[in-house]
Amino acid sequence: MDLFQITGLTHFFGGLRAVSDFNLRMTSGELVGLIGPNGAGKTTVFNLISGLYKPAAGSIRFLHFDITGLPPHEIVRRGIVQVPEGRGIFGNLTVRENLEVASTPNRRGLKAGFDHVFALFPRLEERLRQQAGTLSGGEQQMLAVGRALCAGARILLLDEPSMGLPPALVDDIFDIIVRINREGTTILLVEQNAWKAMSIAHDACVLESGSIVLAGPARELRDDPRVKNAYLGG
Question: What predicted TM-score, i.e. pTM, was given to this entire model?
Answer without folding.
Answer: 0.93
